[in-house]
Automatic annotation (TrEMBL):
It holds the Pfam family HK. It comes from Ligilactobacillus pobuzihii. GO terms for molecular function: ATP binding; hydro-lyase activity; hydroxyethylthiazole kinase activity; magnesium ion binding. CDD domains: THZ_kinase (cd01170). The keyword Transferase applies. This is Hydroxyethylthiazole kinase.
Length: 265
């Protein structure tokens, strides 16, 4: 795996344009900034073209959209397609709310999305698989998550990153499973949103290799979570959040490379 993309990202400092949600906007901005990218957020549709022009990648988060924001998201995605800037979509809670699923599918029809990053419930809903989601959380189901991720990737012609205890990255055929990470990620609302924007940052560094960029992003983020926990046996989400932000900036490639656990299929 080309983990050295992290150093390239830190050198290039790509601008990542985000449609964020009001819950996690600061996590996303500070997470990108600490890692070595340059975040910018927008809530004004009239600046879309200029915003996309100055950006290297776009992350569209469906966490708390309104009808107005959907118009903005559509325009931003289409503008990014015209400018050949990679687009990442985070389909928050589409497994729990049918209306969200419908909007997400419409956007996927209208925008050429490079990567969909969601949890099991979200990706299962997009794939049309049997699964019970719970709000923004993954929920429960019986299906094989690798197959579900592959189905979603084939259906929408994208790379899919299905995150959770294991992260599954697939283009519909190739599969990488990353075992690194910590359950404390799930105790911090916004871990997933941070990851989606970080995927966009890696895609900006290597737009020709979205699959590689996505699996590197997942691995780097998971290892940084582990470094944030360190050898402490008890840690709560408060300290984890602070340490995560620190490690996003401080963690060096050599530390990240230690103890990588992934398999390819
Ligand atoms: N139990 C776990 N063990 C290890 N890593 C985990 C676990 N749960 C989540 N993660 C990691 O947390 C990060 C966010 O993924 P997650 O699937 O929790 O996103 P999400 O459900 O969209 O989160 P949110 O919407 O609350 O921000 C990923 O890097 C994932 O690998
Ligand atoms: C809690 C929550 N509600 C809508 S978005 C969000 C943050 C996770 O994306
Ligand atoms: Mg999420």
């Amino acid at each position: 795996m080309q983990l050295s993309l992290l150093n390239q990202l830190r050198q290039e400092n790509p601008v990542v344009l985000n449609i964020s949600n009001f819950v996690t906007v600061q996590d996303v901005a500070n997470g990108l900034n600490a890692l070595g990218a340059s975040p910018i957020m927008s809530e004004e549709i009239n600046e879309t073209k200029e915003m996309v022009h100055i950006s290297d990648a776009v992350a569209l988060n469906l966490g708390a959209f309104s009808e107005e924001q959907v118009k903005h998201i559509r325009k931003m995605g289409q503008e990014a397609n015209r400018a050949f800037k990679p687009v990442v979509l985070d389909p928050v809670a589409v497994g729990a709310i049918d209306y969200r699923l419908q909007v997400a599918k419409e956007l996927l029809d209208e925008i050429d999305v490079a990567v969909i990053r969601g949890n099991a419930g979200e990706i299962a809903a997009l794939a049309g698989a049997d699964w019970t989601s719970k709000g923004i959380d993954a929920g429960q189901g019986q299906g094989d998550l690798v197959e579900i991720a592959q189905q979603a990737a084939q259906k929408f012609h994208t790379i899919v990153l299905l995150s959770g205890a294991d992260d599954i990255i697939t283009d519909g055929k190739r599969v990488t499973i990353v075992h690194n990470g910590t359950p404390l990620f799930a105790a911090h609302v916004g871990s997933g949103d941070m990851l989606s924007s970080i995927v966009a940052a890696f895609c900006a560094v290597d737009p020709a290799g979205v699959y590689e960029a996505t699996r590197v992003a997942a691995t780097v983020f998971a290892r940084i979570g582990e470094l944030a926990v360190g050898d402490q046996s008890t840690m709560g989400p408060g300290t984890f959040t602070v340490n995560l932000l620190d490690q996003l900036q401080l963690a060096q490639l050599e530390q990240i490379k230690q103890n990588i656990k992934f398999e390819e299929a």
